[in-house]
Automatic annotation (TrEMBL):
GO terms for biological process: L-valine transmembrane transport. The keyword Transport applies. The chain crosses the membrane at residues 15-34, 41-63, 69-94, 130-156, 162-180, 187-204, 210-228. It comes from the Archaea. Keywords: Cell membrane, Membrane, Transmembrane, Transmembrane helix, Transport. It comes from Haloferax marinum. The lineage of its organism: Archaea, Methanobacteriati, Methanobacteriota, Stenosarchaea group, Halobacteria. Belongs to the AzlC family. GO terms for cellular component: plasma membrane. This is Branched-chain amino acid ABC transporter permease. It is a multi-pass membrane protein. InterPro entries: Brnchd-chn_aa_trnsp_permease (IPR011606).
Length: 231
């Protein structure tokens, strides 16, 4: 009978505290998808195919606002650009993986999976890298899928007067506040918020507010950081 690699179990154990934060986030994503007009089937399909918390919520908001598909996809790409940096950073540890294993690892890549795996690899050269990564990433995937399915099912039965259409914006605010650790991040967030509102008020078509605000926020954040605004 095959045994489960110890490093896989270590990955599941290390990720367990994060499951407590992932579950309510997934519930909100499921509820928000249904509240924005997606069917339960579409909400579950998006969760399993896209598998990206922040960009998934952004896509739900845009789909609910009948934004053009190109804008929806472009927004998701911009929000997830950080995954390219994660991939470049973790790629040297995955060189020995088979192509199929690399494909699975890329699909399961998240902020949490990257952070825990890099920390483990730097501490222990003897780690079964793939087993540990899959232990972390797959357990996060399972919790996300279950919670978003639960949210979609529950959301379908919630009365409209409960106002759950505000669920997605509130989650974005909850994700934003802990990241405001220095002047650069603060300037980036403030700029992004102001630009997003300005774009909406100006009546710019195609729901470009998220993309324009993201680009402006990143530009300002990098500018402040380059000028020594990390304090």
């Amino acid at each position: 009978m095959p045994t489960v690699p110890p490093d896989f179990l270590d990955g599941v154990r290390d990720a367990a505290p994060l499951h407590l934060g992932i579950a309510p986030f997934g519930l909100v994503a499921g509820v928000a998808a249904v509240e924005q007009g997606l069917s339960i089937f579409h909400a579950i399909g998006m969760s399993s195919i896209v598998f990206a918390g922040a960009s998934q919520l952004a896509m739900i908001e845009l789909l609910g606002a009948d934004a053009p598909l190109a804008i929806v996809v472009g927004t998701a790409v911009i929000v997830n650009l950080r995954m390219m940096m994660y991939s470049a950073s973790i790629a040297p540890y995955f060189r020995s993986f088979a192509a199929r294993a690399k494909a699975v690892a890329s699909y399961l890549l998240t902020d949490q999976a990257y952070a825990l795996s890099i920390a483990r690899y730097n501490q222990d050269d003897g780690t079964d890298r793939f087993a540990y990564y899959i232990g972390v990433a797959a357990s996060l995937w399972v919790v996300w899928q279950i919670s978003t399915i639960a949210g979609a099912v529950v959301g379908a039965g919630l009365p409209p007067e409960w106002g759950f259409e505000f669920a997605a914006p509130l989650v974005f605010l909850a994700l934003l506040v802990p990241t405001l650790k220095d002047r650069a991040s603060g300037a980036s967030a403030l700029t992004g918020g102001i630009v997003a509102v300005a774009v909406v008020v100006a009546g710019v078509p195609f729901h470009l507010d998220i993309i324009v605000a993201a680009v402006a926020g990143v530009f300002v954040g990098l500018t402040v950081e380059s000028l020594g605004g990390d304090a």
